[in-house]
Design goal:
Low-confidence stretches: 1-35, 329-346, 658-664, 807-816
Number of domains: 5
Largest sheet: 4 strands, antiparallel
Number of helices: 32
Structural class: alpha+beta
Mean pLDDT: 85
């Protein structure tokens, strides 16, 4: 395969650096600028006076605190030092500067200064700054898996096939972070072969094996996807490579040689696509007698019932389930034990894993979804094979490459076909061609070509095919569908009315849920939730089988998706009074009228739970495994809600004392932090973060409401004062304070969404565009579609500058 890749002459694709540069307006370049009016001069003087009074004391030529001096600035120097003043605007908006403890302007004066600085920056920017973009953008693991699903109708786990993707600021689709090394290329080639075999199948498939394990905390309740009336177990999705016989071996039951728990019958069923193919019983009167009579061999006999379970199946996707039937607990105390911290469950058997083996006696290939997708024709005689093969290759490659297939493309891929024919006939050739397609740079990279005849520094718009691909990966995290691709081929997608119609169609499509499951989770750094394992000694109600983290993720996804899909104001992410709960999360939230494992839309009576800041996923991710952290929660709000990342803490910061020195008295979290922030190096940042975090202190580290600190034995104090002097007490006051300036949250949201859409870091020179989008959306109550459409229409999304080409394979600097 690699020798074919070496034969290929890939047309040059411009790859350029990330450095942003100013594009000068040619029109009027030699015309003198009109003199400012008296009113403009007066306004500028007033703002410069505010800066001199409250900022220059630290930021002067002598002190240069933070490496910045504002001494001697003029209205004209704002645009010349845009990067510095964009940072200043961000800190002023977050009320981080002037620092708490220093002299403070009136809130109205800060707001006025922010407006003036932003207006000055926007006017100085003029035409949008356009980055010299790295236009080779590798597909990440999720994009690869989604593309394979839509291209070949095959479900794969990208995490198992491909190396881990690097991230930048939480996002896994940032071009400069998606590095490529020789080992990466090798793994992509191996993955291409595996996917091709899975998609086409092998009538001569050799027996193989798969092992499926139960997720933590799933064995005492119903597992979604398994039939109602079952308890625990495993639901596995698998693509069988061939028609034939398969064997399931269920892992041994966890008991001892005396058969603890055998007094109760536990019916177990094995299901293929929800049809029972095997049923047995573990435990009961007969098994009790068996253990009484044959002590040493009884357990082996019981476990033998769970082995060598044979069934016949066709090739293709199937759902295999192994579970216990739910039984009555009337005769035992097991039901009560489920709610006892650390309570034993020895009498309730678990399915920890099962192994699937096969195919044995492979008998051919059925009409699997992937084969139906691939084989648009099938030759009935040998001399028709090449013509059919070219038809199949052209069809698959067109969607994979997101463009029409050239004669050169077809010639290259046909060599893979010919090699495959030698080993496996016509279908072997098709497998080889699909391997070549999936290993091609034209599939693995999102490339944007520079139009011929342009010189370095010139601006160009991406073409309609590139726009189709960029739009699809933004809104669906996958390749374009046929409708979008055809519009790109015809050159009609860039027409404003057509583009708007397509954006709305795509947002209404189920695939747009990736904006919630992918974008929102990465924006809010939900990866941290995987790293937080609740301390079972402190939070037994949120540990082990009661671990709520996966349910919390689902709640967050469904909540965000509802805001987007209903095209509501994105401000509703902070204030919406509904959520989605199943019984487990409802009980965790103190809501008792939700039954079952299915998530339901619920109108929340407790206003403290409204919006993102009442969601368990957020509250747990911004905490420690054994206690709350107002610091982490405050920093979370500053960074992800207000868009003002707090400064990195100084080195060697001491840990919090959990007990009063010289006593055994447990300290409240507030008391711990009060001692900590007494240090001058810590006080200024904590004065901003802590009041935000303390407002959420009634939620424990698992997101459960509490009125008292059970360790310190005191009533929770959630009061605080924001830097602007606003007194708050609890989550409702915090939410109201944040909603007084909704545009700040919308700007933060838009900035992150633009970053996700572009696949690049948002730089200071992008901020005028961000503000323009936010101001435009304000007229439509900040509706989600208004923000998306403005991003898609923006020059940042659709235009680039020409830069000097860099050879493919060059090492790019990471964004700083």
């Amino acid at each position: 395969m690699l020798r074919h890749m070496q034969r290929k002459r890939i047309a040059p694709i411009a790859v350029v650096s990330l450095a942003g540069v100013l594009i000068a307006l040619l029109a009027g370049a030699f015309t003198a600028a009109p003199a400012p009016s008296a009113a403009q001069t007066s306004a500028a003087d007033a703002q410069l006076a505010t800066i001199k009074q409250y900022c220059v004391g630290c930021h002067n030529d002598r002190a240069k605190t933070g490496g910045v001096s504002f001494e001697g600035i003029t209205p004209g120097s704002i645009g010349q030092r845009a990067e510095v003043f964009e940072k200043a605007v961000r800190k002023l908006r977050g009320r981080v500067m002037p620092p708490p403890g220093a002299r403070q302007p009136e809130p109205a004066a800060i707001d006025s200064l922010v407006v003036w600085l932003e207006d000055s920056l926007d006017k100085a920017a003029g035409q949008a700054h356009l980055r010299d973009q790295v236009v080779l953008h590798r597909l990440n693991r999720k994009e690869y898996a989604n593309a394979v699903r839509d291209l070949l109708a095959v479900e794969i786990n990208g995490n198992e096939l491909l190396p881990e993707d690097d991230t930048f600021e939480g996002f896994d689709n940032i071009a400069t972070a998606l590095q490529v090394s020789p080992s990466f290329i090798e793994q992509y080639v191996i993955a291409a072969r595996a996917v091709a075999v899975k998609a086409v199948g092998r009538p001569d498939a050799r027996p193989g094996g798969w092992t499926f394990r139960a997720a933590p905390g799933t064995q005492f309740t119903h597992v979604p996807g398994l039939p109602l009336g079952t308890r625990g177990g495993i639901l596995a999705k698998v693509d069988l490579p061939s028609d034939g016989e398969y064997v399931i071996n269920v892992a041994d039951m966890a008991t001892n040689i005396w058969g603890s728990g055998m007094e109760f019958e536990n019916p177990l069923v094995v299901m293929i696509d929800n049809q029972i193919v095997y049923e047995t019983v573990v435990g009961g009167e007969e098994d009790v007698k068996l253990f009484d009579q044959v002590l040493n061999g009884a357990l082996d006999r019981v476990n033998a019932r769970l082995k060598n379970i044979r069934f016949a199946a066709k090739a293709g996707p199937h759902k295999i389930g192994v579970a216990f039937k739910r039984r009555t607990f009337a005769e035992s105390d097991d039901q009560l034990q489920m709610f006892v911290p650390g309570g034993g469950q020895d009498r309730m058997y678990r399915v920890s894993s099962f192994q699937l083996q096969g195919p044995f006696s492979a008998s051919g290939l059925g009409a699997t979804p992937s084969r139906q997708r691939i084989f648009s024709c099938y030759p009935d005689k040998a001399d028709a094979q090449e013509l059919c093969a070219k038809q199949i290759i052209t069809s698959v490659a067109k969607r994979a490459y997101r463009r029409p297939v050239s004669d050169e493309d077809l010639s290259e891929l046909f060599m893979y076909y010919q090699d495959g024919v030698k080993e496996g006939g016509f279908e072997g050739g098709v497998r080889g061609a699909i391997t070549g397609i999936l290993a091609s740079p034209f599939f693995l990279y999102r490339g944007e070509r520079v139009p011929a005849g342009l010189r370095p520094g010139e601006v160009y718009a991406i073409n309609d095919l590139e726009l189709a691909s960029k739009l699809s990966f933004f809104l669906w995290n996958t390749i374009p569908d046929e409708e979008l691709l055809e519009l790109g081929i015809k050159g009609k997608l860039s027409e404003p009315s057509v583009l708007e119609k397509q954006v709305r169609r795509m947002l209404a499509d189920p695939r747009s849920i990736t904006l919630a499951s992918n974008f929102v989770h990465q924006w809010l750094d939900m990866k941290r939730l995987d790293e937080i394992v609740p301390d079972s000694n402190v939070f037994p109600y949120a540990s082990g089988r009661a671990d709520p983290r996966e349910d919390f993720k689902t709640e967050l996804t469904l909540f965000a998706d509802s805001i987007f899909r209903e095209d509501r104001s994105v401000v509703d992410l902070l204030r919406a009074s509904h959520t989605f709960l199943n019984e487990r999360i409802a009980l965790h939230y103190g809501i008792t009228d939700i039954k079952g494992d299915r998530f339901q839309r619920v109108d929340l009576k407790q206003s403290s739970r409204w919006g993102l800041l009442g969601k368990g996923a957020i509250l747990m991710a911004a905490a420690y495994p054994n206690r709350t952290s107002p610091v982490l929660r405050g920093a979370f709000i500053l960074k992800y809600i207000q868009g003002v990342p707090p400064a990195t803490p100084p080195p060697n910061v001491p840990t919090l004392d959990e007990k009063d020195i010289g006593t055994t008295k447990a300290l409240t979290v507030r008391e711990m932090i009060a001692k900590h922030r007494a240090s001058p190096t810590c006080s200024s940042c904590h004065a901003v973060m802590d009041p935000l975090g303390f407002a959420l202190e009634n939620f424990d580290a698992t997101g459960r409401w509490r009125d008292r600190d059970r360790f310190a034995g005191t009533v929770i104090d959630s009061s605080g004062e924001l830097p602007d002097g606003t007194a708050i007490n609890g989550p409702d006051d915090l939410r109201k304070a944040l909603l007084r300036r909704p545009e700040q949250f919308v700007q933060t949201f838009t900035e992150r969404l633009l970053m996700y859409a572009m696949g690049h870091k948002v730089e200071y020179y992008d901020m005028p565009t961000v503000r323009r989008i936010v101001r435009g959306a304000a007229h439509d109550d900040y509706k989600f579609s208004a923000l998306v459409e403005a991003i898609v229409q923006s020059e940042q999304f659709r235009k680039h500058r020409v830069a000097q080409p860099v050879a493919v394979g060059a090492v790019y600097d990471r964004p700083q």
